[in-house]
Structure formats: structure tokens, C-alpha cells
Amino acid sequence: xxxxxxxxxxxxxxxxxxxxxxxxxxxxxxxxxxxxxxxxxxxxxxxxxxxxxxxxxxxxxxxxxxxxxxxxxxxxxxxxxxxxxxxxxxxxxxxxxxxxxxxxxxxxxxxxxxxxxxxxxxxxxxxxxxxxxxxxxxxxxxxxxxxxxxxxxxxxxxxxxxxxxxxxxxxxxxxxxxxxxxxxxxxxxxxxxxxxxxxxxxxxxxxxxxxxxxxxxxxxxxxxxxxxxxxxxxxxxxxxxxxxxxxxxxxxxxxxxxxxxxxxxxxxxxxxxxxxxxxxxxxxxxxxxxxxxxxxxxxxxxxxxxxxxxxxxxxxxxxxxxxxxxxxxxxxxxxxxxxxxxxxxxxxxxxxxxxxxxxxxxxxxxxxxxxxxxxxxxxxxxxxxxxxxxxxxxxxxxxxxxxxxxxxxxxxxxxxxxxxxxxxxxxxxxxxxxxxxxxxxxxxxxxxxxxxxxxxxxxxxxxxxxxxxxxxxxxxxxxxxxxxxxxxxxxxxxxxxxxxxxxxxxxxxxxxxxxxxxxxxxxxxxxxxxxxxxxxxxxxxxxxxxxxxxxxxxxxxxxxxxxxxxxxxxxxxxxxxxx
Length: 579
Known about the structure:
By secondary structure, the chain is of the alpha+beta class. The protein folds into four domains: 8-121, Phosphorylase Kinase, domain 1; 126-295, Orthogonal Bundle (Transferase(Phosphotransferase), domain 1); 448-505, no CATH class; 508-576, Thrombin, subunit H. 34% of the residues lie in helices and 23% in strands. A six-stranded antiparallel beta sheet has the order 1-2-3-4-8-7. Strands 14-15-16-17 form a four-stranded antiparallel beta sheet. Strand 1 (8-9) and strand 2 form a beta hairpin. The radius of gyration is 25 Å and the shape is globular. It starts with 7 loop residues before the first strand and ends with a strand. The model is unreliable at 198-203, 305-344 and 351-446 (pLDDT under 50).
């Protein structure tokens, strides 16, 4: 499925070195950019390490016979492939406008092999999700440092009328200088001067981290920092307690425990900030990121600009990080400076003790324990998100892909497999019998539970569609997709979108075509504007009249002046007296 190691892209501008992650929506490679540094006295040819994200929709794509070009199986696959490829390119364009020390930089976006690629800054480090899982909850002073860095990055993008909409620990990397970097703008939204969304995208919901307004397609139609503020609060909650917060959409019936109830060491100042940021009603949260940052009790810290770590070449690649498809992942030293071999030995001992304990319980309690342990395993994956379209920060990475760890990888059935120098899986090595048994016990009941939940959600989707509750149907369809990305749920998504578009189109009288848009009059307000093929207003319906102005379109304002738009829907002249 992967491009071969050593493959060149863009006429040998880039070379692929190895796969560092892959999931349902694509593959991330570590690569090299070949470039030149020119000076007054000569030229230096140099190689720059980068990350390259290749769009590859796993369920619908395959490599053609040449092993390079990406092909798609079905008509539905073609529809989804084009949609999400456009989202990948959109992510690159948004990132190109948000250069900030705490945001990953994008270098290039291009199409080749019948798909799209983003060349991005190479970051050595780990995600906060990885650090939380390996080291436990973060010290509060360390968390506050990282949250101030990410908060400043979000304040920067909000000033550009951009929402990230997927803030969570797996989308925050800690680089080898111990600074936080925000990644994955694949589901972000950009808004125009009227604070209206300029590009509609399918919502991606990270369970426990998404605000309640993100469960509704219309909930983020107008610009507000509040969804990102909620998600940053939820991220702090998770990193200080080790628990994923109760989903916002379920909090009417399920209480959100106070952070201090789970971690008594949390200060009241930080807890108050978290709880206010996570208010269900957006009006009750902080209204700007600056307000939130001001409320946080920020300890003094030094932002490092030079690495205190050894050269990255001395770190073994760790391709198996299960929550992020990093632009590179290298093994960082743990906070207590424990060596890699000591860490591995301790981990093996902990696993062995856990295995023996659980098997003893299993033997003593019989089949009922198998069910309980299976349910426990299911709850461990309850936080799996719908995969973002750009495949960065895939939640299922550790189960779906080449989850390599220090030269080994975990295969789909949990067995330990060796890797060759290209990172491809070789013959699986049998695990000890007790570990095999534990794997079987812990996974025994999960598929049945998922099947039942999936079937229940599909039935709910259909019932809500019949009742005309398309927003509710859409939310349930996303939950079903997070369990199984099937043809059935994909077709339901398409049907929901078609119905929603029909509803939107019914709000307007169509007057004329205009480039890729349609000139319309809003039936209720009687004002003119233009909508796109999805029924979204690309030129807001606020004008008293509209008529042709050569190749452009003139819209008459209330003051009898005209705003002139080109066929791309861009305002090229405001307040004209004539054309």
C-alpha cells in the first residue's frame, strides 16, 4: 500500500525515507527536501528533513499496477476521495497563512500519483496523548506552560478568523526543545469579514473534546472562538486527570466530575479555568483565548530555542505511536531520565504482573470475567474519534498500521512482528501463551458490543431522517462511522447531505447562474445574494437587487451603492456608484 522507500516526488525534489504512520485516510512519510542555499560567492546543496502526508483513503483506494498511482474502487469512493482530497489541500492553504512558533509549518502542497501531498515541517517529538499514556498525568506547572503556548497559537489563528476545531492531546506535539506545537488543521474552518464560514466541511468529532455546537452542522456556521476554548479546557482536564471528559452532548444526563475529584493535587485556580472553559452554553465560557490565558496562573518558564537533547540521529524511530501520524516521531527521554533499556524492562515487568493477575481472576471467576474484561477493553477505546480527513493524528493508528516500536511492530492480532529496514512486517513471533490468552480474553466480547451499538445507531439515523431531524441523524451517523466505516453508513451520510441541501435550497428563489454559484433571493428576507452547490451562502443575502456587470455581478445595497463580485464570489469593488 505504501510508496517504496527511496521513491522520489516532484521530479526528485523530495525523497521518501520511511513510513512513520498510516491509518484510514492516508500515509505519513519521513522524507528529504533537496534544496540549494545561494550566497554571493556560491551555492550549497543541502538536504532538509521533512514530513510528507499522502492522501490515501484506505477503504476505497488501492495502488495501480505500477505501484505508484492511486486508484479508487467505486463511485461512492470517487465522491468521497475527491471531497477529502479537497480538504487536504484546504488544510495546506490554511496552514500557509498561520506561521507561528507553536504551529507546524507547511512547505508545499502538490498533486501526483492521482492523489495529493503536503510537505510539512519535520518535528521530532511526541504528542501529549503519548506522553500521558506513557508517563501518567502531567505536572500542573508543565501543563500550564504547554497550554499557554497552544493558547497563544490559537489566539493567533482566531485573529485571522480561523477555528481549529480539533484541539486534543494527540494534536499537540512536544518537540525536543520541550515546546508545544499545534498540528492537524484538517477540519479547521475559515471565516470571512462577516464572520461567516467561507467553506463548509463535514464535522469531525473527537469524543470528549468537541463542544456541543460541533455536533450540529449549523453550530459553527458563524465565527466564535468558543468551540476551541471548550476543547482546550477539555484537553487540560484530560492531561491533569488522565480521564477523557464526558461528551458534551451527553452531559445533560451524565455528570462531569470535577478535575480535583480525580486529581486532588490540582489547584482551585486551574480547576476554575477548566470548568468555565468547558461550560455547555458557549455564552458561559471565556469569549476569547486572551481571557482564558489571563485567568490561568502562569508559572515562569524558559522557552528553549536550542535542543538539550542529543542529535536526533541517535534516537531510534518509534513508528508505532498510536495516536499521531507524526511528521516524524523520535523517542524522547522520559522525564526521570530513565534509559530506554530500563524503561522497556520495567514495562515488561508491569505487563507480566498484570497478565498473571488478570489470568488468575479469569480462572477464578470464569466466563463472566471474560465479558467484563471485554467491556473494559471496549471502554478503553470509547474515545476513538472519527478519522480526520487529512489523516493526521489518527486515533486508530496503533491498531491499523505499522505500529513499530524500537524495531518491532504489533500486528493486527496483537502478535509481535519483526520489521526489516524498510519498515515492512515480516513473520510474526509467537507471544508467550499467557499473553496470547490475555489478548483473547480482552478482545472476546468487543466485536459483538460494537456490532450491537453500530446497528442501534444506524436504526436511529434512519428514524431521525424519516422525522426530518437531519442534524440528529448526522450526529448519529458520525458515531456509527467511528465504530465502522462501512458502505452503509457512507451512503447514509450522502443521503443526509442531499436532504440538508434540499432544505437549504428551498429557502431561496433562483434567479440566474453566476460562475460556479447561483444568484438567489431569500424567500423570507427578500434579499439577494449567491449560494453554492451545497446551498451555502457565499455572497450573503443582504442586497436589494442584483444584475450583471460585464463578466461580474453587481449587488445593490440599501444605500443605493453597489458591491461588485467576480465569478469566484470575491468582492472586487465596494460602494461603487456605477460599473
